[in-house]
């Protein structure tokens, strides 16, 4: 828990900053409402930027989660926490050890956050037309949470097979080399488990995302309103 907890604030700050900048870069103004296509592009760009922090945070998380149950860990040191593991990876593999699986993370984050933000904005705009004459700034916490939950479902639906591949890569015995490791990991999963192997754990991930994404988006929207009102 320590790895995602410590990295949560930094990862989400970077993510939402990159997303906001992506919208502004396309519209040229904070007062212009972006199209859903522009939302998707901004989300995809935010996913790329977010991978810089998300990749090492998730690497440490997934390796600590399985260290007591894998053959890799059976013959290796059991790590006390994220700092112990990060130090070990840096000493053994250098920067490559900390950024282990970076491109697999990028491959996951691009469709994930394109869908995440588009699902949220689409639902928010629909609810705004239904509940507040099209003005999304009047939506309360519950509609915003519902919109965020839809975004969370869209996130996992868009990227789950890629998340499985990323986790496999980051739990390997050593950091991958070359540019084809994502395809090789996908091929191995298909050979061992078939198509269903790419969707193992999908349901609990979606169930978790419903409250998590709902709270994330509602908090973000309400805090932004409060900051704008305080100007």
Automatic annotation (TrEMBL):
Any one GO biological process: mitochondrial L-ornithine transmembrane transport
Recorded protein name is Mitochondrial carrier protein
| Source species, domain of life | Eukaryota
InterPro entries documented for this protein: MCP, MCP_dom_sf, MCP_transmembrane, Mitochondrial_Carrier
| Keywords in alphabetical order | Membrane, Mitochondrion, Repeat, Transmembrane, Transmembrane helix, Transport
Q: Where in the cell is it found?
A: Mitochondrion membrane
Q: Give the signal sequence positions.
A: none
**What is the recorded membrane topology of this protein?**
Multi-pass membrane protein
Q: Where are the Solcar repeats?
A: 34-126, 139-226
Named from the GO MF annotations, one term is: L-ornithine transmembrane transporter activity
Source species taxonomy: Eukaryota, Fungi, Fungi incertae sedis, Zoopagomycota, Kickxellomycotina
Tell me a GO cellular component.
Answer: mitochondrial membrane
What family, per the record?
Belongs to the mitochondrial carrier (TC 2.A.29) family.
Pfam families xrefs: Mito_carr
Its predominant location is mitochondrion
Q: Give the SUPFAM superfamilies listed for this entry.
A: Mitochondrial carrier (SSF103506)
KW NAD (keyword) present: no
């Amino acid at each position: 828990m320590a790895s995602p907890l410590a990295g949560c604030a930094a990862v989400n700050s970077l993510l939402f900053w990159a997303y906001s900048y992506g919208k502004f870069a396309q519209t040229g103004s904070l007062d212009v409402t972006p199209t859903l296509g522009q939302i998707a592009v901004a989300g995809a760009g935010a996913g790329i930027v977010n991978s810089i922090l998300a990749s090492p945070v998730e690497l440490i998380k997934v390796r600590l989660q399985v260290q007591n149950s894998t053959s890799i860990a059976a013959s290796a040191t059991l790590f006390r926490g994220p700092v112990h593991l990060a130090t070990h990876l840096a000493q053994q593999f250098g920067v490559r050890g900390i950024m282990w699986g970076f491109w697999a993370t990028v491959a996951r984050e691009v469709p994930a956050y394109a869908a995440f933000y588009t699902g949220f904005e689409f639902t928010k705009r629909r609810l705004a037309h239904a509940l507040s004459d099209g003005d999304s700034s009047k939506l309360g916490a519950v509609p915003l949470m519902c919109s965020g939950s839809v975004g969370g479902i869209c996130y996992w639906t868009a990227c789950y097979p890629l998340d499985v591949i990323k986790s496999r890569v980051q739990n390997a015995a050593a950091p991958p080399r070359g540019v084809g490791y994502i395809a090789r990991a996908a091929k191995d999963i298909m050979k061992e488990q078939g198509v269903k192997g790419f969707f193992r754990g999908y349901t609990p991930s979606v169930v978790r995302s419903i409250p998590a994404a709902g709270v994330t988006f509602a908090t973000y929207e309400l805090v932004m309103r409060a900051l704008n009102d305080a100007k």
